[in-house]
Amino acid sequence: MSDRYAKYKSLKFDRPHDRVIRITMTSQLKLGVMDADMHREVSEVWRDVDSDDSVSAIIITGAGKSFSAGGDLNHEIKVARDHDLRMQTMKETRDLVYNMVHCSKPIVSGIRGWAVGAGLAAGLLADVSIAARDANFMDGHTKIGIAAGDCAMIIWPLLVSMAKAKYYLLCCERMTGEEAERIGLVSLVVDDADVETKAVEIATRLAMGPPAATRWTKYSLNSWIRNAGPIFDASVAYEFMGFAGPEGIEGMTAFLEKRAPNFPRTAVL
């Protein structure tokens, strides 16, 4: 494996095929929750694999039984109270999305267990997303008093329609992998035991296909996503304004204290 990947601590790399690199998100936290290091690394890794001439296709997956259940709220409380840390994390959030969109090589995600927040973004921005039937999807933001950010505004309305996007993002509803496929949020569902095999099969097929034709097709399709860039940029700004606001602080604190949040009943927009 190239030395370019030696700097990554939360991501593990292997080669299920000589032209395919698999990125496995590893976390010491429950359900694959992203700590600060993993969030930064997932935002940066796409530039390295894109510039690696030995790679023709990429798999992103999680270790163990979960993909990634979003960010570490103990760290997010620090983000809420530290302006410089908040700006750094906001940049990483934008980089995660744009670096995946701009990566020229096809990306396949293999999603098992929970996919929430930034973890959900990495799963849904893949070019082919494969989920276990019993996987659990949720955006998670409004539940903790923060405007939906990460990938939500740039990809959900394109995938599932505005009506479904509004329902799931405003109400913070959970859905299974089977429901996610039914409404078009993911490409395919398979049994949990078959996620890894299917991801390798599709990534290998893409890696062995015509590279220029594959990459130009991806680039053209992603123009739909790039057109939503200004909407996404605004949503990320609203998201990080919310982190420092009273609703975000209360929502995250309540979640960590395992109690119902006491949000204010009015807001000035």
From TrEMBL:
Keywords: Lyase, Plasmid. It holds the Pfam family ECH_1. The keyword Lyase applies. Its EC number is 4.2.1.17. It comes from the Bacteria. Gene3D superfamilies: 2-enoyl-CoA Hydratase, Chain A, domain 1, Lyase 2-enoyl-coa Hydratase, Chain A, domain 2. It is an enzyme of class 4 (lyase). GO terms for molecular function: enoyl-CoA hydratase activity. The keyword Zinc does not apply. SUPFAM superfamilies: ClpP/crotonase (SSF52096). Belongs to the enoyl-CoA hydratase/isomerase family. This is Enoyl-CoA hydratase. It comes from Sphingopyxis macrogoltabida.
